[in-house]
Write a structure and sequence with these properties.
With 213 residues, this protein is mostly helical. The chain has two domains: 108 residues, Serine Threonine Protein Phosphatase 5, Tetratricopeptide repeat (Alpha Horseshoe), CATH 1.25.40.10; 103 residues, Tetratricopeptide repeat domain (Serine Threonine Protein Phosphatase 5, Tetratricopeptide repeat). The protein is built from eleven helices and no strands. Helix 4 runs antiparallel to helix 5, helix 6 runs antiparallel to helix 7 and helix 8 packs antiparallel against helix 9. The termini are far apart.
Length: 213
């Protein structure tokens, strides 16, 4: 929770709770209206701006989504969820440089936030910064975290690009152990199988070369 949100007046908090119920029901227009009312009462409500940005995104209005999320950051420059949501908008537009800046700010605000670190690792992977991606993956590994199996998939992809196939296979195996039926499981299995075939071929080629006179 943002520090500023601790001072939310009761009427604004009531509208925010109504918005949360509407969001759960996927009633986006009603949620937007309740959030706008909450912000009219308390313009420094970071969480309300953040949720409003998410609602606008659901409504397909990325311009207003970005504006609302930026307002959340303006109200509290340590509000990590808003940085994350802004970064997701940037990734959707393939603006990896902007996403990297936003997630770096999120990590600076909370160095222990595993989600920010994992997303930053993925952005570095997408941007082709494989060593940086691995650095952030290792930072996630060093923290207590739940439901972040994807970090092993990211690490595996980065290790592939860094020409470390055996290490990549180990990361794929860990990913599949933690998320055997997830949406990326089949893709991970295929990539791991291809790597293992390539490793076996390289091993045979080295053995045959060693046997030649």
């Amino acid at each position: 929770m943002s520090v500023g949100d601790l001072n939310v007046p009761a009427p604004a908090g009531k509208e925010y709770r109504k918005a949360s119920i509407s969001i759960q029901k996927e009633e986006w227009t009603q949620a937007r209206e309740h959030l706008q009312k909450a912000l009219a009462i308390y313009p420094a409500y970071s969480a309300a701006y953040n949720d409003l940005g998410a609602v606008y995104a659901r409504l397909g209005d990325t311009t207003h989504a970005r504006e609302a999320l930026q307002q959340a950051v303006n109200a509290d420059d340590h509000f990590v969820p808003a940085y994350i949501n802004l970064a997701k908008l940037a990734v959707a537009e393939h603006n990896f440089l902007e996403a990297e800046k936003l997630l770096t700010s999120a990590v600076a605000a909370d160095p222990q936030d595993a989600q920010s670190l994992m997303l930053l690792a993925n952005v570095e992977l997408l941007a082709g910064h494989f060593a940086a991606a691995l650095t952030y993956c290792r930072r996630v590994h060093s923290l207590p975290h739940d439901s972040q199996a994807l970090v092993h998939y990211i690490a595996a992809r980065a290790l592939q690009q860094e020409n470390q196939p055996a290490e990549a296979v180990a990361e794929f195996q860990t990913f599949l152990h933690e998320e055997p039926a997830g949406p990326d499981a089949e893709k991970a299995k295929k990539e791991m199988d291809n790597l293992e075939v390539a490793i076996d071929q390289q091993t045979r080629e080295k053995r045959n070369a060693a046997l030649l006179p």
